[in-house]
Amino acid sequence: MWRLEQFKKQGGFQFLMNMCTTKTLFYALSIFPFFSGSKKSLEIFRLAIANRTYRYISRKFKGTKVTYEFSDTSMEKIAQNKNAIWFMWKQGMENAPRLVKYNLAVLQKKFGKDRVKIITEKNLFDYIELPEFIKIKIERKIISPTHFSDIVRIQLLATYGGMWVDSTLLFSGDLPEVIYNQSFFVPQTLKPGRDGKVIPVSNWLIISKSNSDIVNRMRDLLFYYWEIYDRPVDYFIFHHLLMLVFDELLSEYQDMIVYDNTQPHALLIAMKTKKMDTKEIKEYIQLSPIHKLTNKLDTAFEEENQKKLIEFVKEELINDNYK
Question: Could you tell me the pTM of the whole model?
Answer without folding.
Answer: 0.89
